[in-house]
Amino acid sequence: MSELFRPAAEWELQSMIARLAREKRGIEVVGHGALRNTGRVASSDVVLTTSGLKGVTLYEPTELVMSARSGTPVFEIEQILAARGQMLAFEPVDLGPATGAPGGALSIGGVFATNFSGSRRIAVGSARDNLLGVRAVNGRGELFKSGGRVMKNVAGIDVARGLTGSWGTLAVMTEVTFKVAPLPQTMQTLAYIGLPDDLAIEALGIAMATPLEVTGAVHLPKNCAERLKVPKLKGVRQSLTLLRLETFSTSIDERKEKLKTALKVYGNPIELDPEETFGLWSEFRTLSVMPFSTDTSLWRISTLPTKAPEIVAAIQKFMHAVAFYDWSGALVWLEVPAAADAGAADVRRAVAVRGGHATLIRAEPEIRSTVDVFEPLKPEIERLTRGIKSAFDPNGLLNRGRMYANF
Amino acid sequence: MPHIELPEPDVGVLRRLPILIEGLKSRVGNDLLIVDEDGRRAYETDAFTAYRRVPMLVVLPRTTEEVSKILKYCHENDVKVVPRGAGTSLCGGSLPTEDSIVLCISKMNRVLEIDYANRLARLEAGITNLQITANVAAEGFFYAPDPSSQLACTLAGNLAMNSGGAHCLKYGVTTHNVLGVKMVLIDGTVVEIGGSAIERNGYDLLSLVIGSEGQLGVITEATVKLVPAPEGARPMMIGFRSPEAAGSCVSAIIAAGIIPVAIEYMDHAAIEVCEAFAGAGYPLDVEALLIVEVEGSEAEIGILLGRIAEIAARFDPKTVQISADADQSARIWAGRKAAFGAIGRISDYLCMDGTIPLAQLPHALTRISQICAEYGLKVANIFHAGDGNLHPLILYDANDPEQAGNAEMAGEAILKLCVELGGCLTGEHGVGIEKRELMTTQFSATDLAVQMRIKTVFDPTWRLNPAKVFPLAITDVMRAGNAASTPEAA
Questions:
Q1: Is residue B96 within 8 Å of residue B102, measured between CB atoms?
Q2: What is the set of domains in chain A, with CATH numbers?
Q3: Of the candidates A54, A76, A75, A56, which has an alpha carbon nearest to the alpha carbon of residue A65?
């Protein structure tokens, strides 16, 4: 067991990293552990957790803005927001349950460190899009800030958003400031039945091209749809193509009818009421259709919606793969049989030909240490990436190897 | 006197100019170069017109390959490069130096690909903002960021400044609407940052590039999101007896869970000028006017505007008027978007761009009036109230050096106030030369060092868009071309 550092305040975290930087000791950065089974395994001398940095430091409901210390659990933040009729619009995804890590352990810092956003991203943008500012300590032990608490801020280089998706390899966030949004007054779901993947993506695309502000556009092929728990959809035994509408109660029926008209040729949908809709989309927030198992690995593929069914079909030629299409097809969660390389060769080839990138989310730690977890970078981008890493963390101490084998 | 310092030109480079011209001619041909003084003079300033410097050479490339050749040549010959789109920067973002080459990409304005199924468009970066929407409007889409200069400004400039606009309350700013760019680094390397997928691979380099004001590279192409046009949109105008009432009304609307697509604020001085210019029907007997626009179907618009009117009623408005028809809506927006131009017809002005937390609005307005009065200057306030982005226009006479100097000092005081109140120096115009020295009021030495090291990764010898964004005093060593000396802040 590595030595554990658990700072209780920002200044303490800074002084710890400054000391570790002087001693040139590698630091694995964690929150409450929700992401420990995801990504490459960092090689480190010590573990530093942000779990002691908790609490909301600013909340202005009328300005739609909140600041929280990075170790604050997401569920706590969502409770505070819900009490004022607000939410994190980008629906952070808790990968814990799907990766064999604890559920409910996701911290707000982890949300921005990974930039993993949920279904509503397609309407409101990602975690990164909703981030306004950060305070963080880099691998030199320097405390710095970027951005702020206002919606528009273009002073200088946008370091705050540049830190999103860097998995703690550049800096340890101590506090994040982000946009919040009003909870929708009401919501409904239309579920189209039995569409093959390519037709389903076409239907979702048509829905997204309407001005009806669809806030969820998901397709579950039959073998994935069968895993849903929502009673109304449980027994359908066919593929399900799901569209969520969220708006004022005075306009939801009007929008629903317009959406049904636009998608008339795709059949008659099952309609889910607000309660059923809430239950259904909550399942996606913990990826319950991609449950933890040591018999399978899990990939996350980002591509163009129209390319997604082709990628899935190409991979399915080589293995039994179960797909969950989100963001109208721009994101595919793909479960594949456990294998020595977690299917990397076939997955990467299928993606490379059609455009996009794939991340290995779930596999045995040995596999995540030997195959590329993140899509390999083109040489000129790798050069810039290494340059950025070196600018923030010249000695390569923070989460070394967490994203890429060599840095 | 205007007092922003512009570095002395490097006479060594100026002496080499004839050789540099021949070198560039041999690489990209004769017809891309503007050598004669009259031609170069057209590029001596941008929309921050108080400062002018004629560049030693202007190049107008037509392809990414030509941009690459030009930058490679400049890099090898240690020449500074000022990237330029349409030159509409309000902060001197594209102001040349006398020893630099202006690389203007306005000829690169083609649409490369429109993909409606995936809701994206790939464009050359010299295309104007409005032209993007013009190309996709027939299919029911638009490109969302809408800076007031959208008729003229280029996508490249929008990317450099992370431009916003009146409608970003709902649709976000440039950084929310771009998927990827093709960019040329100072050494001529062409890189693709981001792509066409909505998620990035690896570090979010695109976030670092957007809004970096031409400090990191020259963007030649971009892939942007296309957004479905709303079914309908309609503004309403609410006139108030006091700025405080208007400010409180904005907070109350948002607190009620309504996010209008735009909430614009004009004070009495601005209303008068814009009404005279546009004949939009703005009420002239109010102290503050809100233009609130909502989108949706006819029925939805009616309901939402009704609810907003109910909320506004709590703040004793003097007038509440919903736009009668498309024609009036167009005039209401024409007046607002032409505001800077309209005020420019009656006076020279400095346009500020600070942002404040919404709750500070009434206090900020009072202080802005006081500050301008202290310098003996008038001010007109126009701004994006929904997101707290203020645009006080400080009126002055450019022919009076004392007034010009006072206007700059009042502007500085206003921006410092914005930072003090928890906001920032610039919401959408950028830093350029205008706010360069004020960066230390918003950022610590370490904050700036973190940013400057990123610049050094992309542009090791600091030859791109020199003497902008970062305070001169802390960049002199790097600007002299010594990359290794980016400060190790304490």
A1: yes
A2: 49-182 (3.30.465.10), 186-285 (3.30.70.2190), 296-370 (3.30.70)
A3: A56
| Closest Cα in chain A, distance from residue B426 (Å) | 6
Of the ranges A141-150, A188-197, B34-43, B345-354, which one carries the lowest mean pLDDT score? B345-354
**Are the beta carbons of A151 and B117 separated by less than 8 Å?**
no
A135, β-bridge pairs: A145, A175
3-class secondary structure, A87: strand
Distance (Å, whole) CA A369 – CA A367 = 5
Strands (E), A303-405: 322-326, 331-337, 357-362
Tell me which architecture the domain covering B11-104 has in CATH. Answer: 2-Layer Sandwich (3.30)
ipTM of the complex: 0.97
- CA dist B87 and B106 (Å) reads 10
Q: In terms of Cα–Cα distance, which of A9, A17, A15 is closest to A48?
A: A17
B383 close to A (CB below 8 A): no
Q: How confident is the model at residue B489 (pLDDT cuts 50, 70, 90)?
A: very low
Q: CB atoms < 10 A from the CB of B257, how many?
A: 16
CB A369 within 8 A of CB A114: no
Mean pLDDT of chain A: 96
3-state class (DSSP) for residue B361: helix
What strand order describes the sheet that includes B218-225? B111-115, B120-124, B218-225, B178-184, B190-194
CATH classification of B233-339 is 3.40.190.150, yes or no?
Answer: no
Parallel/antiparallel/unpaired status of strands A131-138 and B111-115: unpaired
Listed by number, the residues of chain A in 27-46 with a beta carbon closer than 8 Å to a beta carbon of chain B are none
The CATH 3.30.70.2740 portion of chain B extends over 347-437
Of A326, A342, A384, A334, nearest in space to A126 by CA: A326
Asked if A157 lies within 8 A of B454 by C-beta distance, the reply is: yes
Beta bridge partners of A59: A66
Q: Is B92 left (phi over 0), alpha (psi -120 to 50) or beta?
A: left
Q: Does A93 touch chain B (CB under 8 A)?
A: no
List the structure tokens of A46.
Answer: 């010590």
Mean pLDDT is lowest, of A82-86, A115-119, B278-282, for B278-282
Strand partners of residue B320: B238
Cα separations (Å) of B155 from A99, A147, B128? 42, 23, 6
| Contacts B357 to A, Cβ<8 Å | 60, 63, 65, 149-150
CB atoms within 10 A of CB B40: 17
pLDDT at position A326, please? Answer: 98
| Tokens linked to A20 | 């570790």
Cα angle value B150/B39/B29 (rounded, 5°): 95
DSSP A398: B
